[in-house]
User: Fold these one by one.
Assistant:
Number 1:
Amino acid sequence: MIGVVLRSRVRLAVALLALAMPLGAAAQQDLPPNGLLLIAKPGLEDANFGRSVVLVTQAPDYSTVGVILNRPTSVRYQGKPIWAGGPVMRQVVVAVFRSQQAPKNAAFHVLKNVYLSMHPQIVDALVADDKARYRLYAGFSGWAPRQLESEFGRDGWYVLPADEATLFRQDTRGLWEELVARAAKPRT
Protein backbone atom coordinates (compact mmCIF):
# COMPACT_ATOMS: atom_id res chain seq x y z
CA MET A 1 0.00 0.00 0.00
CA ILE A 2 2.78 2.45 0.88
CA GLY A 3 4.44 1.72 -2.45
CA VAL A 4 1.23 2.56 -4.29
CA VAL A 5 0.87 5.84 -2.40
CA LEU A 6 4.52 6.75 -3.02
CA ARG A 7 4.24 5.91 -6.74
CA SER A 8 1.12 8.07 -7.02
CA ARG A 9 2.91 10.94 -5.27
CA VAL A 10 5.89 10.63 -7.61
CA ARG A 11 3.50 10.65 -10.59
CA LEU A 12 1.83 13.77 -9.14
CA ALA A 13 5.18 15.56 -8.80
CA VAL A 14 6.22 14.61 -12.33
CA ALA A 15 2.84 15.69 -13.69
CA LEU A 16 3.03 19.01 -11.86
CA LEU A 17 6.50 19.66 -13.25
CA ALA A 18 5.36 18.74 -16.76
CA LEU A 19 2.44 21.17 -16.49
CA ALA A 20 4.80 23.98 -15.58
CA MET A 21 7.04 23.35 -18.59
CA PRO A 22 4.88 24.28 -21.61
CA LEU A 23 5.17 28.03 -21.07
CA GLY A 24 8.34 29.53 -22.47
CA ALA A 25 10.60 31.75 -20.41
CA ALA A 26 9.39 35.02 -21.94
CA ALA A 27 5.74 33.98 -21.69
CA GLN A 28 6.00 33.31 -17.95
CA GLN A 29 7.30 36.81 -17.21
CA ASP A 30 4.17 38.35 -18.74
CA LEU A 31 1.68 36.20 -16.85
CA PRO A 32 -0.59 37.72 -14.21
CA PRO A 33 0.00 36.70 -10.58
CA ASN A 34 -0.66 33.00 -10.02
CA GLY A 35 -0.23 32.79 -6.29
CA LEU A 36 -2.52 33.14 -3.30
CA LEU A 37 -2.11 32.77 0.42
CA LEU A 38 -4.38 30.32 2.18
CA ILE A 39 -4.67 31.10 5.86
CA ALA A 40 -6.14 28.34 7.99
CA LYS A 41 -9.14 29.60 9.92
CA PRO A 42 -8.85 29.13 13.69
CA GLY A 43 -11.38 26.28 13.62
CA LEU A 44 -9.44 24.24 11.03
CA GLU A 45 -8.29 21.25 13.03
CA ASP A 46 -6.06 19.39 10.63
CA ALA A 47 -2.68 17.96 11.62
CA ASN A 48 -1.13 19.15 8.37
CA PHE A 49 -2.70 22.57 7.99
CA GLY A 50 -3.96 23.86 11.34
CA ARG A 51 -2.54 27.36 12.05
CA SER A 52 -0.80 27.38 8.67
CA VAL A 53 -0.16 29.95 5.96
CA VAL A 54 0.15 28.27 2.59
CA LEU A 55 1.38 29.78 -0.66
CA VAL A 56 -0.56 28.10 -3.48
CA THR A 57 -0.21 28.26 -7.23
CA GLN A 58 -2.39 26.58 -9.81
CA ALA A 59 -1.44 24.51 -12.84
CA PRO A 60 -3.39 24.73 -16.12
CA ASP A 61 -5.34 21.55 -15.20
CA TYR A 62 -6.56 23.26 -11.97
CA SER A 63 -4.45 21.09 -9.70
CA THR A 64 -2.92 23.18 -6.96
CA VAL A 65 0.53 22.99 -5.43
CA GLY A 66 2.05 25.05 -2.68
CA VAL A 67 4.20 25.27 0.42
CA ILE A 68 3.49 26.08 4.05
CA LEU A 69 5.27 29.36 4.82
CA ASN A 70 5.26 29.33 8.61
CA ARG A 71 6.79 25.99 9.63
CA PRO A 72 10.57 26.36 10.03
CA THR A 73 12.50 23.20 10.91
CA SER A 74 15.96 22.44 12.24
CA VAL A 75 16.74 20.51 9.03
CA ARG A 76 19.37 21.81 6.62
CA TYR A 77 19.97 21.21 2.93
CA GLN A 78 23.59 21.86 1.99
CA GLY A 79 23.81 24.05 5.09
CA LYS A 80 20.71 26.13 4.26
CA PRO A 81 17.56 26.15 6.44
CA ILE A 82 14.48 24.27 5.32
CA TRP A 83 10.82 24.91 6.15
CA ALA A 84 8.23 22.10 6.20
CA GLY A 85 6.41 22.62 2.90
CA GLY A 86 3.63 20.12 3.33
CA PRO A 87 2.66 16.49 3.62
CA VAL A 88 3.42 15.44 0.02
CA MET A 89 6.83 13.97 -0.82
CA ARG A 90 8.63 15.33 2.23
CA GLN A 91 11.95 14.02 0.90
CA VAL A 92 11.80 16.42 -2.08
CA VAL A 93 13.36 19.88 -1.72
CA VAL A 94 11.19 22.66 -3.15
CA ALA A 95 12.31 26.25 -3.69
CA VAL A 96 10.38 29.49 -3.85
CA PHE A 97 12.73 31.98 -5.46
CA ARG A 98 13.11 35.32 -7.13
CA SER A 99 14.56 35.52 -10.63
CA GLN A 100 14.65 38.29 -13.23
CA GLN A 101 14.53 35.65 -15.96
CA ALA A 102 12.09 32.78 -16.18
CA PRO A 103 13.85 29.52 -15.26
CA LYS A 104 15.11 27.19 -17.98
CA ASN A 105 13.89 24.18 -16.01
CA ALA A 106 10.36 23.39 -14.88
CA ALA A 107 8.95 25.97 -12.47
CA PHE A 108 5.58 27.41 -11.55
CA HIS A 109 5.13 31.12 -12.12
CA VAL A 110 3.82 32.57 -8.81
CA LEU A 111 4.28 36.35 -9.03
CA LYS A 112 6.25 38.59 -11.35
CA ASN A 113 9.84 37.33 -11.02
CA VAL A 114 8.86 34.75 -8.36
CA TYR A 115 8.73 31.01 -9.03
CA LEU A 116 8.25 27.69 -7.27
CA SER A 117 10.21 24.65 -8.39
CA MET A 118 11.29 21.24 -7.19
CA HIS A 119 13.70 20.77 -10.08
CA PRO A 120 17.06 19.68 -8.60
CA GLN A 121 19.12 21.85 -10.98
CA ILE A 122 17.21 24.95 -9.92
CA VAL A 123 17.44 24.12 -6.22
CA ASP A 124 21.16 23.39 -6.34
CA ALA A 125 21.92 26.52 -8.39
CA LEU A 126 20.07 28.66 -5.85
CA VAL A 127 21.95 27.14 -2.94
CA ALA A 128 25.28 27.75 -4.73
CA ASP A 129 24.47 31.43 -5.42
CA ASP A 130 25.19 33.67 -2.42
CA LYS A 131 23.10 36.49 -3.95
CA ALA A 132 19.99 34.43 -4.73
CA ARG A 133 16.75 35.22 -2.91
CA TYR A 134 14.96 31.99 -2.07
CA ARG A 135 13.50 29.76 0.60
CA LEU A 136 13.71 25.97 0.69
CA TYR A 137 10.99 23.54 1.75
CA ALA A 138 10.88 19.83 2.49
CA GLY A 139 7.88 18.53 0.59
CA PHE A 140 4.88 20.41 -0.65
CA SER A 141 1.14 20.73 -0.31
CA GLY A 142 -0.97 19.48 -3.19
CA TRP A 143 -4.59 19.24 -4.14
CA ALA A 144 -6.16 17.38 -7.04
CA PRO A 145 -8.19 19.33 -9.60
CA ARG A 146 -11.17 20.98 -7.87
CA GLN A 147 -10.27 19.51 -4.44
CA LEU A 148 -9.39 22.88 -2.97
CA GLU A 149 -12.69 24.33 -4.17
CA SER A 150 -14.51 21.75 -2.08
CA GLU A 151 -12.40 22.71 0.95
CA PHE A 152 -13.49 26.31 0.49
CA GLY A 153 -17.06 25.06 0.69
CA ARG A 154 -16.29 23.72 4.18
CA ASP A 155 -15.10 27.23 5.16
CA GLY A 156 -11.67 26.24 6.49
CA TRP A 157 -9.54 28.90 4.78
CA TYR A 158 -9.16 32.62 4.43
CA VAL A 159 -7.66 33.77 1.13
CA LEU A 160 -5.35 36.75 0.60
CA PRO A 161 -3.19 37.78 -2.35
CA ALA A 162 0.41 36.58 -2.20
CA ASP A 163 3.17 39.16 -1.92
CA GLU A 164 6.95 38.94 -1.91
CA ALA A 165 7.35 40.39 1.58
CA THR A 166 5.31 37.54 3.04
CA LEU A 167 6.94 34.84 0.89
CA PHE A 168 10.47 35.77 1.92
CA ARG A 169 9.81 36.95 5.47
CA GLN A 170 12.71 35.80 7.65
CA ASP A 171 10.89 35.44 10.95
CA THR A 172 7.57 33.65 10.45
CA ARG A 173 6.62 33.64 14.13
CA GLY A 174 3.28 35.39 14.47
CA LEU A 175 2.64 35.31 10.71
CA TRP A 176 -0.49 33.17 11.02
CA GLU A 177 -1.97 35.40 13.73
CA GLU A 178 -1.25 38.57 11.70
CA LEU A 179 -2.82 37.20 8.53
CA VAL A 180 -5.87 35.80 10.35
CA ALA A 181 -6.45 39.26 11.82
CA ARG A 182 -6.04 40.90 8.40
CA ALA A 183 -8.26 38.36 6.59
CA ALA A 184 -11.00 38.36 9.24
CA LYS A 185 -11.18 42.14 9.38
CA PRO A 186 -14.46 43.43 7.93
CA ARG A 187 -13.93 45.11 4.58
CA THR A 188 -15.27 48.59 4.18
Number 2:
Amino acid sequence: MQDFLATIYYWLKAGHIVFVVFWMAGLFMLPRLFVYHQECDPDSPDNTLWIERERKLIKIILLPSIGVVWALGLALSVAVDAWSQGWFYAKLALVVGLSIYNSYLTWYAEQLAKGERKLTGKKLRLLNEVPGVAVALIVILVVIKPF
Protein backbone atom coordinates (compact mmCIF):
# COMPACT_ATOMS: atom_id res chain seq x y z
CA MET A 1 0.00 0.00 0.00
CA GLN A 2 2.79 2.40 0.91
CA ASP A 3 4.46 1.80 -2.48
CA PHE A 4 1.25 2.64 -4.35
CA LEU A 5 0.70 5.80 -2.29
CA ALA A 6 4.32 6.81 -2.94
CA THR A 7 3.72 6.59 -6.71
CA ILE A 8 0.77 8.99 -6.49
CA TYR A 9 2.35 11.15 -3.78
CA TYR A 10 2.26 14.43 -5.74
CA TRP A 11 -1.41 13.93 -6.66
CA LEU A 12 -2.24 13.26 -3.02
CA LYS A 13 -0.28 16.32 -1.94
CA ALA A 14 -1.89 18.58 -4.56
CA GLY A 15 -5.38 17.41 -3.64
CA HIS A 16 -4.65 17.79 0.05
CA ILE A 17 -3.47 21.39 -0.41
CA VAL A 18 -6.47 22.31 -2.59
CA PHE A 19 -8.96 20.97 -0.07
CA VAL A 20 -7.10 22.56 2.86
CA VAL A 21 -7.56 25.90 1.07
CA PHE A 22 -11.29 25.21 0.65
CA TRP A 23 -11.61 24.16 4.30
CA MET A 24 -9.73 27.21 5.58
CA ALA A 25 -11.85 29.51 3.38
CA GLY A 26 -14.97 28.06 4.99
CA LEU A 27 -13.50 28.34 8.50
CA PHE A 28 -12.63 32.00 7.86
CA MET A 29 -15.99 32.78 6.33
CA LEU A 30 -18.43 31.13 8.75
CA PRO A 31 -17.67 33.23 11.86
CA ARG A 32 -17.93 36.35 9.70
CA LEU A 33 -21.38 35.23 8.55
CA PHE A 34 -22.28 34.70 12.21
CA VAL A 35 -21.34 38.33 12.97
CA TYR A 36 -23.66 39.62 10.24
CA HIS A 37 -26.36 37.17 11.25
CA GLN A 38 -26.31 38.28 14.86
CA GLU A 39 -26.45 41.93 13.85
CA CYS A 40 -29.72 41.48 11.97
CA ASP A 41 -33.11 41.55 13.65
CA PRO A 42 -34.22 37.99 14.59
CA ASP A 43 -37.66 38.66 13.10
CA SER A 44 -36.40 40.04 9.79
CA PRO A 45 -36.39 38.13 6.52
CA ASP A 46 -32.60 38.54 6.53
CA ASN A 47 -32.41 36.18 9.50
CA THR A 48 -33.71 33.34 7.34
CA LEU A 49 -31.24 34.25 4.58
CA TRP A 50 -28.30 34.10 7.02
CA ILE A 51 -29.42 30.70 8.30
CA GLU A 52 -29.56 29.41 4.72
CA ARG A 53 -26.15 30.89 3.82
CA GLU A 54 -24.54 29.32 6.88
CA ARG A 55 -26.17 25.97 6.18
CA LYS A 56 -24.98 25.98 2.54
CA LEU A 57 -21.43 26.93 3.54
CA ILE A 58 -21.35 24.03 6.00
CA LYS A 59 -22.90 21.46 3.64
CA ILE A 60 -21.26 22.49 0.37
CA ILE A 61 -17.79 23.61 1.49
CA LEU A 62 -16.91 22.69 5.07
CA LEU A 63 -18.17 19.12 5.37
CA PRO A 64 -16.84 17.81 2.05
CA SER A 65 -13.53 19.64 2.49
CA ILE A 66 -12.82 18.36 5.98
CA GLY A 67 -13.51 14.79 4.83
CA VAL A 68 -11.19 15.02 1.84
CA VAL A 69 -8.48 16.80 3.88
CA TRP A 70 -8.51 13.97 6.43
CA ALA A 71 -8.57 11.19 3.81
CA LEU A 72 -5.77 12.64 1.71
CA GLY A 73 -3.78 13.72 4.78
CA LEU A 74 -3.87 10.22 6.24
CA ALA A 75 -2.89 8.75 2.87
CA LEU A 76 0.04 11.18 2.68
CA SER A 77 1.10 10.29 6.20
CA VAL A 78 1.36 6.63 5.18
CA ALA A 79 3.10 7.46 1.90
CA VAL A 80 5.91 9.40 3.64
CA ASP A 81 5.95 7.37 6.88
CA ALA A 82 5.08 10.51 8.84
CA TRP A 83 4.01 8.42 11.85
CA SER A 84 7.68 8.01 12.74
CA GLN A 85 8.34 11.77 12.80
CA GLY A 86 7.76 14.07 15.79
CA TRP A 87 6.57 17.12 13.83
CA PHE A 88 3.71 15.04 12.43
CA TYR A 89 2.16 14.52 15.87
CA ALA A 90 2.19 18.25 16.54
CA LYS A 91 0.55 18.84 13.15
CA LEU A 92 -1.98 16.10 13.82
CA ALA A 93 -2.87 17.71 17.17
CA LEU A 94 -3.47 21.04 15.43
CA VAL A 95 -5.61 19.42 12.74
CA VAL A 96 -7.65 17.62 15.40
CA GLY A 97 -8.06 21.00 17.12
CA LEU A 98 -9.24 22.60 13.86
CA SER A 99 -11.67 19.71 13.36
CA ILE A 100 -13.11 20.32 16.83
CA TYR A 101 -13.30 24.03 15.99
CA ASN A 102 -15.16 23.10 12.79
CA SER A 103 -17.64 21.04 14.83
CA TYR A 104 -18.10 23.92 17.27
CA LEU A 105 -18.89 26.33 14.43
CA THR A 106 -21.40 23.84 13.00
CA TRP A 107 -23.02 23.56 16.44
CA TYR A 108 -23.11 27.35 16.79
CA ALA A 109 -24.83 27.65 13.38
CA GLU A 110 -27.52 25.32 14.71
CA GLN A 111 -27.89 27.52 17.81
CA LEU A 112 -28.27 30.64 15.67
CA ALA A 113 -30.87 28.85 13.53
CA LYS A 114 -32.83 28.21 16.75
CA GLY A 115 -32.60 31.91 17.63
CA GLU A 116 -29.99 31.50 20.36
CA ARG A 117 -27.31 34.18 20.12
CA LYS A 118 -24.81 33.25 22.80
CA LEU A 119 -21.64 34.98 21.57
CA THR A 120 -20.95 38.65 21.02
CA GLY A 121 -19.74 40.02 17.72
CA LYS A 122 -16.36 40.70 19.35
CA LYS A 123 -16.00 37.05 20.44
CA LEU A 124 -16.97 35.87 16.97
CA ARG A 125 -14.37 38.18 15.43
CA LEU A 126 -11.76 36.71 17.79
CA LEU A 127 -12.85 33.17 16.87
CA ASN A 128 -12.14 34.11 13.28
CA GLU A 129 -8.42 34.24 14.14
CA VAL A 130 -8.21 30.59 15.24
CA PRO A 131 -7.76 28.99 11.81
CA GLY A 132 -5.16 31.57 10.75
CA VAL A 133 -2.95 30.87 13.75
CA ALA A 134 -3.41 27.11 13.41
CA VAL A 135 -2.64 27.01 9.69
CA ALA A 136 0.49 29.16 10.18
CA LEU A 137 1.76 26.70 12.78
CA ILE A 138 0.86 23.72 10.58
CA VAL A 139 2.72 25.15 7.58
CA ILE A 140 5.80 25.79 9.74
CA LEU A 141 5.69 22.22 11.06
CA VAL A 142 5.31 20.69 7.59
CA VAL A 143 7.92 22.82 5.85
CA ILE A 144 10.55 23.20 8.58
CA LYS A 145 9.99 19.84 10.34
CA PRO A 146 11.60 21.20 13.52
CA PHE A 147 11.59 17.86 15.36
